[in-house]
Design brief:
The structure is a homodimer. Chain A is an alpha/beta fold. Chain A has 12 helices and 11 strands. The longest helix of chain A is centred in the N-terminal third of the chain and has 16 residues, at 69-84. Chains A and B meet through helix 4, helix 5, strand 2, helix 6 and helix 10 of A and helix 4, helix 5, strand 2, helix 6 and helix 10 of B. The first copy, chain A, binds a DNA duplex through residues 1-2, 10-14, 16-17, 19-20, 23-26, 29, 44-45, 47-54.
DNA sequence: CTTGCAGTTGACAGCGCTGTCATCGCGGTT
DNA sequence: AACCGCGATGACAGCGCTGTCAACTGCAAG
């Protein structure tokens, strides 16, 4: 920067002013500085700027997986929203969802000097992390305000949406609905399971035990094998589409038809969900809107603006496709 | 840090030594410093360190999408490998793959002071970007050494693998194989299309025009509709699984069966590929190995080590499942 | 008892930038 | 004519850390 100043025949401070688009610089000087910047191939040093301003214009993201539909879609939205606001993203994955791992990740982000932290896929534990990040606001993508009032919570109404999906199945005439849940302990899994349970209890139906998956098609397949063996199962709600795909495959491999014998509803509307052999009925949420809303609120906090707590519910839409139908008069026996 | 020094009754420099695990500090002093660090709740300031060392221990990643199987799997591997080596990841997405957008992203990463740059999903244009990043090594995930000798290239042998897949289809007895490619101009699309073409030409078969998709199931569906109308089509190789899924759906919706009438091979082995109604024959590559290999080589460069140019080919495996079979005596007409 | 040397510690400068405050013109007021 | 106010500019300090080099220990060797 000193070089540029010399080249332009101005003080270093003036170069700084021009670079940062501060007012009160004559146009002629501004032009001269820009020319010098160009000539010297000057690029401002972010570290030095961060050192003095105590701001890095960087957001830290903590996630556990980048491959599943939900987190990867939200990540994309977060990145876009951040970039538009002039922020960069520092990405940290934690192999496990343990509070310790998350705490460590947050610590390393704070050390990195991020201005805010975003936690995708909150595990149950996030509420209990109770991790202090003095001066660094935290955004959690979950629909329940939870027990950490300091943190910002944004998310679709998983619980309500799932309840609706199950009620739709009940409305079709199914006696009850089984559930393949995500990993126990995760907020998302729990919220979805709660919605399912609420619908069942609201309609005074039997609440069968939920099967626990891990979001993968393989775990859905395993659950499907178990469910195929129970002759009374006619409707299953899966906590995501991948598991629903695995489940359907298991059902079909046991000679059952979907939706002939068993109706299946998934969640998240994967890119391929509409193009399966049996297009999947699923719950679609606008991940991009959720991400943007969250980042906006986080940046309000970061930049000391009044955080408009509009907290408009982000809508979830039930997309009815071919995997659901009224229950059969008599369900086939599994092979 | 000054506070910690005062608390421990040592010089600031000694605290610095302890923090950085430098030798030549008495154990007793070291313990005292650690205690003071704990007591003061001290966290080193990365910006200040970066300012003086000129190193940020940060890698910049440029990508276009985080949702498709390939890039998201590689991203995960890159993050893991980087974290294990003590590096953080700064993520930048570019909406388009234009050279300009990529150049800009790289510029912003350089300004951010990253020690190295990783480009996922290289577009054709990356070779032509010709972007100078003096002092910042660049890693490209592509199998062809390309025209930019300065940059590190790591990738599975897409071309060879695709050739094998097509030869497998030919070996089944198919007269020729059609191809649904990725977006034109991308390295990955091109390499895969080249492999397909090479196999066909090697066997002296007719090379039908390739259909261009955009990696999504929807584009595969569109291609499938077109292919269903051509009665001579009995085998299709898709540049990824999502498009293959869309394609199969289109074929089936036109009354054709897979693999009865048409055999389909995909690529990338998505989480759900083995669990589809017709489990998909596909090409699986070890993304994690590719990512680790790449990061290792990049860090060799970053840290000034001799970059062991072992360049072991990362293997690609053909997973034969139910979507491929010998061609029918007479292919059905599409509805 | 001196000398040398390795191991240990500290003083100080400076990385590249921005915030603060002083300074300098210039035109408009009294 | 003296004054004021404001826009434009610059001098300088200092953000929190590490690299350099000097200084100071104790102990073994001469």
């Amino acid at each position: 920067m000193a070089d540029v100043a010399r080249l332009a025949g101005v003080a270093q401070k003036t170069v700084s002013r021009v670079i940062n688009h501060e007012p009160n610089v004559r146009d002629e000087v501004r032009a001269r500085v820009f020319a010098a910047v160009e000539q010297a191939g000057y690029r401002p040093n972010a570290a030095a700027r961060a050192l003095v301003t105590q701001r890095t214009r960087t957001l830290g993201v903590v996630t556990m997986s980048t491959t599943f539909r939900g987190p990867s879609a939200i990540l994309a939205g977060v990145e876009a929203a951040a970039r538009e606001a002039g922020y960069s993203i520092v990405l940290t994955r934690t192999a496990t969802g343990e509070p310790r791992a998350i705490s460590e990740a947050m610590d390393s982000l704070v050390a990195r000097g991020v201005d805010g932290i975003v936690i995708l896929e909150p595990a149950e534990s996030t509420a209990t992390i109770g991790h202090e990040t003095p001066g660094t606001p935290v955004l959690l993508f979950e629909d329940r305000p939870g027990e950490s009032p300091e943190w910002i919570h944004v998310g679709a109404d998983d619980r309500g949406a799932c309840r609706e999906a199950v009620e739709y199945l009940l409305g079709l005439g199914h006696g009850t609905v089984h559930h393949v849940a995500g990993p126990a302990g995760w907020r998302t899994s729990d919220a979805r399971a709660e919605g399912w349970r609420a619908a069942l209890e609201g309609a005074r139906r039997i609440v069968p035990p939920a099967l626990a998956g891990d979001w993968t098609a393989a775990s859905g397949y395993a659950a499907g094998l178990a469910l195929a063996a129970q002759p009374d199962v006619t409707a299953v709600f899966c906590a995501n589409d991948d598991m629903a795909i695995g489940l359907i495959h298991a059902l079909e491999s046991r000679g059952l038809s979907v939706p002939g014998d068993v109706s299946v509803v998934g969640m998240d509307d994967t890119d391929v969900s509409a193009y399966l052999h049996t297009p999947l009925t699923t719950l679609a949420q606008d991940f991009d809107a959720i991400a943007r809303e969250g980042v906006e609120r986080l940046l309000d906090e970061v930049e000391g603006r009044a955080p408009e707590s509009r907290r408009e519910a982000v809508p979830v839409e039930l997309r009815v496709r071919a995997s659901t139908a009224p229950p059969p008069a008599k369900r086939r026996e599994a092979r």
